[in-house]
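Suppose a colleague, Dr. K., hands you the sequence of a protein chain of 124 amino acids and asks what its three-dimensional shape might be. Before reaching for any lab equipment, you can write down a predicted structure in token form. Begin with the sequence itself:
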Amino acid sequence: MADLRVTVDDLELEADWTDDAPETRRALEEALPLSGDAVRWGEELYFDVPVDAPAENAREAVPKGAIAYWPPGSKLCLFWGETPASVDGEPRAASPVDVVARLSDTSALEEVDGGARVRLERLE
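The predicted structure, expressed as tokens, is then:
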């Protein structure tokens, strides 16, 4: 069973926590549920979150489906494909992010526009 429900407008997706950045994950878990109006940057959505966590195991290249925290801007990012910073087709952040979770299926995100409402919550 998945750990998280990610709602993007009327789409419901599932995600699982990763162990890549445990302190960042803990800070985000304590702040759940999180929601915001997202901006689209290539095949990435990002939105403001009320979390202030330092970089931990941060990297620019991330796996498809990554949910990551961007420390400099306190943003939560969902990656499902190429961004303007991508090299060789991999999802890539503008600057290092901490991967905290991973979406099980990203295919529905292809149709999402910027300005989508995103919500991240525990799956009960």
